[in-house]
Amino acid sequence: MTTRTEATFFPPIPEAQRWLHGVSFPQDRPLINLAQAAPADPPPAPMLAAMAEMLAEPTSHLYGPVLGHPALRTALAEDWARHYGGTLYAENFGITAGCNQAFAAALTALTTEGDEVLLPVPWYFNHKMWLDMSGVRAVPLPCNDGLIPDVEAARALITPRTRAIAIVTPNNPTGVEYPAPVLRALYDLCRQAGIKLIVDETYRDFDSRSGAPHDLLTDPDWDQTLVQLYSFSKAYRLTGHRVGAIIAASDLLHQVEKFQDTVAICAPPFGQKAALWGLENLAQWKAEQRDEILARRNTLAAAFQPLADQGWKLRGLGAYFAYVEHPFSMGSADLAPLLVQKAQALVLPATMFTPAGDPTGDRCLRVAFANADADRLRTFVSRLAELDLARLRPAS
């Protein structure tokens, strides 16, 4: 017997890390690791100082409320209302052990064995993995040349078993920021079909657009259709403390509470305290981090322009990500491990974000630049420019 867990694929990040085993890098050409989309630096010094004081508080080491500390839920509701408009309450917010758990909890509350969820292709691999392990069918939703979900294709794919359309914006893996009219069209489609629109906004804080990226929360009955997901990991460098959130109807969160209590009891209280401190004290610092990420985005866009003559194409760029079309005849699953040897660079093949056999996966690579400054990004692009196309083509 094959279990549902055995039937899904191995997590891509650990898989890619295996390509480094036994490989040594010249001192003048160290590895440029552009595989994982998470900041490696610790939180800023003022937050670390505050966290040191929190560590001495007894409640930092105890179970807390299953759906999160009331103070954090209230502060997040106020923050969300300021950013998006509309009326939001603490009971619309549930705190989870990271955004991946937010997705898992929401989908567990919404689906059962044999149900279907539409995922735009390329998709975030952990979303696909969770659906596989839940016995829920992930239905590939095509995107257009701009890597934006096709709303009419989504309409045609909805069946009586469809429970949701799940999207990520700014997108992982492509970096593309979905336009507000597209989100509105998907929302209207889901409302008409009686299903949920799940919007994962893990990278919201690095969106290049000023103001709210959509107006869906201004609808008085938004909670009948919309489920939003968020992460504190990226904005405040709290990746190891696992703090995420679900924004949804209170009755759906009541069902999520069952999942939370069974799997994690509650999100880590220490991380929740740090997240609250960040919300209350780090607005300016967070804005500066956004400016830095946008500057890296601009650096990468400029550096890639000369590569167009070699056949490279920047398909998507935003948040922490670039989605790059390569010019080689080999597929990306073969090319990505080879780049460790030839370019001393670790990136992920798009085959890790697409259905098996999807030809678009063979053509692209995902570049995650959360931990690469402008100089390293320019070095990475220069190494790509040095690659010998003929020698990288497999023998016919």
Structure description:
The protein has 396 residues and is α/β, with parallel strands linked by helices. It folds into 2 domains: 142 residues, Aspartate Aminotransferase, domain 1, CATH 3.90.1150; 237 residues, Type I PLP-dependent aspartate aminotransferase-like (Major domain) (Aspartate Aminotransferase, domain 2, 3-Layer(aba) Sandwich), CATH 3.40.640. The protein is built from 16 helices and 13 strands. The strands form 3 sheets. Strands 2-8-7-6-5-3-4 form a 7-stranded mixed beta sheet, with helices on both faces. A 4-stranded antiparallel beta sheet has the order 9-10-13-12. Strands 1-11 form a two-stranded parallel ribbon. Strand 3, helix 6 and strand 4 form a beta-alpha-beta unit. Helix 12 packs parallel to helix 15. The two termini are 40 Å apart. The model has no long low-confidence stretch (mean pLDDT 93).
Question: Which features would summarize this protein structure in a list?
Answer:
Aspartate Aminotransferase, domain 2, Aspartate Aminotransferase, domain 1, globular, alpha/beta, seven-stranded mixed beta sheet, 16 helices
